Amino acid sequence: MLNILLLLVPLLVFADASMITLANNRYEGLVIAINPEIAEDPKIIDGIKSIMTDASSVLFKATDNRAYFGEITILVPEKWTTGTYKAARNESYGKAGILVASANPKHGDEPYTMQYGECGEPGEYIHITPDFILNDDVIENYGPKGKTMIHEWAHFRWGVFDESATEGYDPFYYASESQNPEATRCPVSLKGTNVVIVNDNETRDCQYNGDTNWLPEDGCVFIVDSEQPEILNASLMSHQYLDQVLAFCHSDENDPVNLHNHEAPNEHNRLCNQRSVWDVMLSSVDFKNKANLPQVGFVNPQPTFKVIQPKTPRYVLVLDTSGSMNGINYDSMMTASSSFISYYVPDKSAVGIVEFNYDAQELCPLIMINSEADRNNLLNRLPSPPGGSTAIGRGILKGIETMTDFGDSSGGHLIVLTDGQENVAPYINEVREDPTFKSANVIVDSVFFGTSASVDLQKLSDETGGRTTSPNDLKSLIEAFQTLSENNDGDIQDKQFQIFSGSHFMNAHDFTSGMVVLDSTVGKNTLFGISWSQYPYAPDVVITSPTGEKYCSTPRPHCDSTGVSENINIKTINFQIPGVAKAGNWIYEIRTDTHSMTVNVLVTSQAADKDVPPIVVESSISSSDVSSGSPLVVNAKVSMGYEPILKALVTAKITSTDTGAVHMLDLYDGGSAPDVRKNDGIYSRYVTEFSNTGRYSVQVSVQGFGNNISAAGPALSPGSPAAFNFGHVDSKGNIVLNPAAHEHVTSSKQSGTTTTDIDPFTRIDTAGAFFFSETASADSSDLFPPSRVIDLTVKQVDALDVSQGVLLTFTSPGDDYDAGTANSYEIRYTYGSPSSLSKSFTAQNPVKSGNLISGDLTHPSVANSIENFVVNLTDIPTDKDLVTVAFALRATDDDNKVADVSNIAMMNLFLKPPAVSCSNEEGSPISSIPFEKKGDCKNFYQCSNGDLYTLPCKENTVFNPSIGVCDRPENVPSCSGQTLATIAPPTGSSEPPPPSCSSTDGMDLLLPIPGKCNKYYQCNAGQLIERDCPPGLVFNPDGLYCDWTYNVPGC
């Protein structure tokens, strides 16, 4: 049963940050693309120009005169008609760095950056909405728009993360030096007040109690002071909306006011190992090795703008007809090219054909596809059987000529299919420098079909923004052409989704069948494509719908043959299902006659309803050229509209083009490296297994199993958003709230993960291809170290008894990144500066086997398991009431390769429970609502004008901390057995009589009970009541509170 929110959702794609360059302090190549669903409005263009002009000035200041924006390209939709726009070259929606699209319900008009990679890795794209551009009300929420864009640019370009408390991170922590609660922020010198926002106009002071580890209660927020230290100017990654914040936190001890806060429990510290944003930025490709040093003298950072519009999609098939293509390679090329022309390339596209062998020739000029006749015309122009040499360079130049004859070649695609190395000049490297090629601005897509492939052609594809695929059989070749037919213009309604792909080897007079799951989000233009190899004898195929309708390749009673096309010459049968195909299980049945053959089945479909977002899978690989020791990551984003799909079975199929060897790799969304966020719909894994040096293709398949799959509502977002401005404290100490603050807090409280059942589904997506080059020493087969742990957490096993140990939890790395099993763990800790664990890991305190209550340092679990270690700390300093301890770890494999140090996990150990204060951070007295008196069910605390009162509940009631009132005991499980007793010594008792219990000021009196360390007396309205200390604590007669045993001599 499908139940979803109706939205207009753009197709979100993987941008290419490498197309943006920084030279001579100017960024070039930035494209801002407007989604086709956005209605035409020239004000959007003007707004973009204004925002990015301001952003460029902010960027120049924030980078200390190192960078600003040069020429910025704005790509408007093809359907916009009122303006005069230049033709796009190789710019596209799919490669844009900033997308203007409809609002993500999770973020609204809040800008955010899609970040899938680890620290220092560029993001995918920045998402902004038309309302953010046009509506100035957003300034009160996020600050000046130009500054907000630089907050996002830092995410996108340099791979840094938020320094404020984003979702899933603690908004407060105890500072190790001051031992006071601090708001998560950078720098710590940024002043403010902690309050609870009650309504649009009212706040109250935050409560501090044991349930929150004596930190401010849930719902407490940090509101900045309007007056800050004069030299404070950081951080744009924490509070970009403040007027005087124009820089990033750094690690320069000479400027302590803007120093990086390495203790704050934010996402940046977790993923970047306590490094400052400034340090991460300077280590990026933009600035490392002293590149783009600060400009001296006057510099005008104002960018220029170019507004362009995409042209008609144009494709030239540049096909290899050299002698090595003879036989099955030629047959496969003909079948795949025919499928591309007949079914996959969309209407209103232009297609031409060029062949190359010892030379190159045009077989068909570009033809605009408007009818079936146009497609047939192209099919009749496909090349004859091959022979001759391999002149790839000549083929590319002839393709450009064909494209130019049709008009401007800019942005046109050359789909170059070849099975071997070139051996006729001009070679690809020469073509790259040819003025004709440079001025053409074409996109070169490479299809390597064979064991030998040109590395230079792959580089040419990378440089022009093209895609590289490495199919090794007919099925994967057809899939490659289907993928390359997508123009990535952002219009999700026109996208052909690959639903199913299967291959069957069949003997003569054989039978096989299979099932295809079609979900209700797709169904329009559904195509069952059947292809086979070797012999020109068609199999007999029957397709059965979920409701019993049959479609047959051979006419027979009660079977529909309309919409079925068969071509013996190119060995294909295609079933075009009429209307919108029904959701459910479709069955195909295949029978062979007198010949054996391999039969391939490929099913594609489009979105069923323009108002219902389809399930989408978008996959990518982190590099196209990999050497041993360098990590390769496969990512797959699985979503329905803007909502991530959880608990899907996501598998990457990695195939060696040379040997055909296949490695299946499950991708995970568990929040361990390389997956940076748990449950955000981004599934990731490292690729660590290679059968040989050579080229590999990567294909991702996804399965959903109905109720086992959840489309999360406001789940943990994969985006990195701008910080929200709750308001400020004016110079008189008055809190001035942002009118939207209460609504923002309320929506945040409701942002827990929700689930919606969706249909069973399947999707297949081609991630790309890469070349693996072996550079490891010959005597080592262990190419990779274990992965870095990024999800280490620590907490006290028993908050009231430190002797029970502390619990470390993390996801186990493997022998090779996240595969296999590591050999051992090294865990270290410190009571000093947490950053010392990353700076000098081996100098910190080691956790030895004797310190472990549970866990084994020498026997790690297999990769991607949850590890739990309980550590007994025997060296806790006793000179403080509060001690901060920080842990980190790293794994070693059996070849002594060592992982990078993990994220640093910190916790507070209370050696004495903190006294309850009735003062705020400035020391001013406060009043409060009733709150829990830890360990005491019958009484509660309440502050009144700075004084702390202990007040009793009525008879037969206990205090319920969840609602802040006295309640029936059965509603408070932890207090269901409590009774109130008046203490009177038994007759003839030898114990001393209890002390007198009188009170003239209405305040309670606490007294020790001789000989009973874990009990105490409480005087309440003249009655003497015996109380128990919480488990593990004893009564301290000096301090008159329950305390740790080692603080009370004799107990």
UniProtKB/TrEMBL annotation:
Its EC number is 3.2.1.14. It comes from the Eukaryota. Residues 1-17 form the signal peptide. Keywords: Carbohydrate metabolism, Chitin degradation, Polysaccharide degradation, Signal. It is an enzyme of class 3 (hydrolase). Residues 915-977, 994-1051 form the Chitin-binding type-2 domain. It catalyses: Random endo-hydrolysis of N-acetyl-beta-D-glucosaminide (1->4)-beta-linkages in chitin and chitodextrins. It holds the Pfam family CBM_14. Gene3D superfamilies: Chitin binding domain, von Willebrand factor, type A domain. InterPro entries: Chitin-bd_dom, Chitin-bd_dom_sf, CLCA_N, CLCR, VWF_A, vWFA_dom_sf. Residues 314-484 form the VWFA domain. CDD domains: vWFA (cd00198). Transmembrane segments: none annotated. The keyword Signal applies. This is chitinase.
